Every structure is written in structure tokens, then in C-alpha cells.
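This entry is retained here.
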Amino acid sequence: MFGLHDIPLSIVREGISLSIERDKGGLFYKRKCMDEEVENVFLSSNSKVLINPIEPLHMPKELTPYLLIEFEKSIFIEPTARKIIFIKFPVEIGVFVHGKKDYQIIDILSLAKQKFTLYGSVKSGIICKYWKSDVYFTMPDINPVYEGVIELSMTNTTKRWVEVTKAVFNAYGMKIYYSDDMVSMKANMKILSKKVAEIGFIGSHLGKGMKRSLELYTSIKIPMIATKFLMEEGI
């Protein structure tokens, strides 16, 4: 499903039905997903469509650039240790038309349920997209149309055991890679104290042949906007 496609295009997979046909100089786009139907006409003579995973923070609409993933079970990491875990994240799929100079997003869809939560206090907390994941010590099986996997490298810089129950990720730093059977990201979590940690992404894939996604937050990134997230309200 993911990758660069010629037009006409027809894809039916996992409850998603998507087609693009030429119609008298324009492109007729039709899509069904999760009981939602979209039909549009694009006045373009170009003949390529890119479909790839994008940051999972656009649906049902862009309320926040932050993704909070709560762990099904708490993790206790020993003093000064560095450990690697795997967690899952929801996938959103971007459909782009290849224009004369660049790509234009024409649709976003997802099979994942959309939930939000508050990180921090009611008075000063931030809204986050919410997802819950098991914690894995080896690469888990995934359905790449529905879920991706994050390889999270955790470093405990303190001299005490620390409990970790969640991680908050900043969409402006996300670097997503995809293949036919996998969607992935890699991130670092630097634990600074019992309640504080810093999380940032690494531009690296998890398997041979994986391609870098065309992300939306990256394309609109403003130089002064931070790409990491400092968890100061508990980990």
C-alpha cells in the first residue's frame, strides 16, 4: 500500500478502499475508511501519488503536536543503565499528489481509534494524543496499516531505580520509516530524575530497505520550534 504509485490507482486493504482515476484533465479521488467517505476532484496533469505513514496527530483534527503513549505495565530501570524497549504507536496514512515542484497532501486516514488525554495538572498540563501499548523486549508483530513500532532507548542517568509508566513524543521531531510490512521510528529517552526525562528522535530505520516518510510536521517546521520533549510532570 505504501510508496509511490502511478495513476490510475485502486487499493482495497484492511477496510480501506481508495482509488484515483483520470477524468478529463483532472484527477477523481475516492476513498472509504471507517464508515467515512471522501470524494474530490484535483485539477492536475501529474501522474504520481505517494502514500506513506505520517505523524499520528492529524485526526480527527490537529489539536496538539504531542503523542502520549502509556505503558500497559510499569518499567523499572536500574541506576545508570541503558536499555532498549519496543512500543507500538497508531498509524495515520497521508495521501499526496506529486505536483510540479513538490508533494501536496490530499487526504489523511487512519484505522486507529482517536483518543486524547492531559499530561500534567489541570491548570498547566498539555493536551496529548493518547495511545496505550504493551512493552516488548524484541520487535513485536504489527499490522503496518494500523500500528507502527518505536524502538525506545532508555538511559537512566540517576543513581536510583526509576519507574517509567509513559512517554511523550513531539511530532516536530518525528522521523518515520516504512516498508511493506513495517512502520517504525527510533527515539531516545534520557531520564534526568525520578519525575523528569527528555525524549528525542533518531533519523534511523529498523530494517533494510525501509524508506523515509514524507512527514507533514517536518515540512512546516519552524527553526525555533523544539523537536524534543521534556517530561517535567512525571514519567
